[in-house]
Specification:
Strand content: 15-25%
Helix content: 25-40%
Oligomer: single chain
Number of helices: 3
Structural class: alpha+beta
Radius of gyration: 14 Å
Order of helices and strands: HEEEHEEH
Strand order of the largest sheet: 1-2-3-5-4
Largest sheet: 5 strands, antiparallel
């Protein structure tokens, strides 16, 4: 059975896509810590532990995530883009990219934002435009 993230990458479940290529997919987290909080996944591998990935997939995932992070930083006012790999909620390797202004912005225990669909769409579009420039 395909994971929810695989179904998102295949377009079976809607998402706010930020970037995509044949191997990787980036989309906004629907329960974000900050505006621009993005998830980056491998499209063709459902392993739930990042360190189980084949070296080429692992390296490609990080290279793709780097480009997405550069686009986020260009689109969202922040000091940095933080990175977290937890993998506890969804059994599909994913990297969290979170715009940060303080270290506390990467605290998953804090209350998450509740955004309207039009705001999600605008954020995704602004990051996507920056990604396309790279």
């Amino acid at each position: 059975m395909a994971t929810i993230f695989t179904r998102i990458a295949k377009g079976e479940i809607p998402s706010y896509k930020v970037a995509e290529n044949e191997d990787y997919y980036a989309f906004l987290d629907i329960s974000p810590l900050a505006e621009g909080h993005t998830l980056v996944i491998p499209k063709n591998v459902e392993d739930d532990y990042i360190f189980h990935l084949e070296p080429a997939v692992y390296d490609g995932l990080w290279a793709f995530a780097r480009k997405v992070a550069v686009a986020i930083k260009a689109a969202i006012p922040c000091k940095r883009v933080g990175v977290a790999v937890l993998g506890m909620e969804v059994p599909h390797t994913h990297i969290h990219l979170v715009p940060l202004n303080t270290e506390g912005d990467l605290d998953f225990r804090k209350e998450h934002l509740k955004l309207k669909s039009d705001r999600f769409a605008a954020i995704a579009e602004s990051i996507r435009k920056e990604f396309e420039k790279l």
